[in-house]
Amino acid sequence: MRPYFDRMYGNPSSFHAEGLAAQRAVLDARTRVASILNSRPDEVIFTSGGTESDNIAITGVIRAHRERGTHVITTAIEHHAVLEQLERLAKRGEVELTILPVDAYGMVDRKSVEKAITEQTVLISIMHANNEIGTIQPIADIGRAILAYRKAHDTVYPLFHTDACQTAGALDIDVTKLHVDLLSLSAQKFYGPKGVGVLYARRGLKIEPLVVGGGQERGLRAGTENVPGIIGLATALELAHAEREKENTRLIALRDRLITGLLKLPKARLNGHPTERLPNNANVSFLDVEGEAMILYLDAKGIRVSTGSACASTSLDPSHVILATGLSYEAAHGSIRFTLGHATTKEDVMYVIKQMPVILKLLRSISPVRLDMAHFSETPAKKKSSQI
Amino acid sequence: MDTQTSPDITSRDRAQSWFYSDEVKDHFFHPRNFMTDDMVAAYRDASMGMVGSPACGDMMKVWIVVDPNTTQITDLKWQTFGCASAIASTSMMSAIVTENGGMTLDRARQLRPQDIMERLGGLPNRKIHCSVLGDKALRAAINDFYRRTNQHEKIEIEHGRIIDPVLKVTDKDIEEAVLDGAITLEAVQAKTKVGTGDPSCIPEVEQLIRFYREKFFGADQA
Q: How confident is the model at residue B3, as a pLDDT?
């Protein structure tokens, strides 16, 4: 990646030697990414990141297929890169949106997807794994069900998109096994550079570009390529992909040790699925304490985490993902997400398990709230899908 | 349905500081005067006020001990469920109220969130709403003191004044909206719908927004 910042400075669209060198490097990166996706190189579109990939996959696809229908299916736990644009399109009357519920583990039911499909459905977008609670969705199963629907109804719709930003580099993202037409991924999630991502878009799929200009990336994403970023993404993805089985085994052991340690603390509950879960994700709610207060105390101890509490976000509501699993507002405000990575060691996990009770004890002694464990199960998960 | 979304990653690049002052950090990491469970029994006769709920993400309890002769608050204990701003501002409030022998009840009633914020060296704008519960809990405790001492005529209930007679929106509602960051008429209307039924109140609403905006965020804020 580094030489492409200065020594190899050519623009891939130029015809001179430097330009051709850059073009070859981008093509090589595209081929390497394609081999991990098990796709053809021309199905790989480089973007500025997961959010842009999601925007092309959703707004770009919906606009190109509006003659055929305007119904879109998604889930209550998608990333904002998906939900925000769909809600905006729904408000503008461009789509009719079905938002599917999830179960208490944050899992989408394949049957609820099948039931929601109508003749008007053009696109289904379901994330591969959730960024907050780590639940891995049955994308391949859902993909097969969608294929069966298409076959039975002799149609190419609905199209299927998955946001794989959390799973690329960690899980198998072979598009022929997932049965997806569109897949988003982001380099920063597998130690690649920030500001670069990929949209896999099946060959021949009509997409209305959101950024137009010089016709780069099959005309789907104009603008001079981020050459060093693209090369960095391809290399980082290859490295992560090659090591993933060994690394996942290591991370799952650490993750489960962390979860077991945290759940021994009073009034704690795991958010997300116990086993169908990203190897690097542990998300726990603690009653009677507020998330932002916990993350700042943890930060002071050198432990960097995030929270689903409203107080740490710019909105006044706690995490939409945790609420969608049926957890109460009280418990959502006290949720903490621990993310593990390459650098995480057993010692780190033991350190967290040692520090957490001290912090909890202090914050609970300040808190006037004394909820009981029944609070975790008071609100059943929303079972109904909502229509916008 | 308007699905509420709360990004786990949100751009902080909005010209608003998210950083806490040293004073806030000091009170957050070393809270003063808080009530631990083993102390509660000893404060059974103290006057108590409570606001908020764990579902909103903020809840506070305040206990005060009052010298009946001087009406000074000689002791104040508290418990807070909430973020760093909420904890630090309750802690700072307890220090302000009890310093120099303690505030009189009349003086304590006039304590405003901005007095606490000033002593904390300011709070990030969007955290200001976390700091307004402390003085409310204090005023509730003062009312409890008058109730316990049978001085019912001194109990002050905080009423909002109705600004929009159609939608029954009060000045308190507008104050809350501004505290939550709605500093334009459109933003306040998005939260309260004020003036959408009876636009004749809009000039007064705009005046109130200006007033609360300057009160909480300072005169130079757009």
A: 39
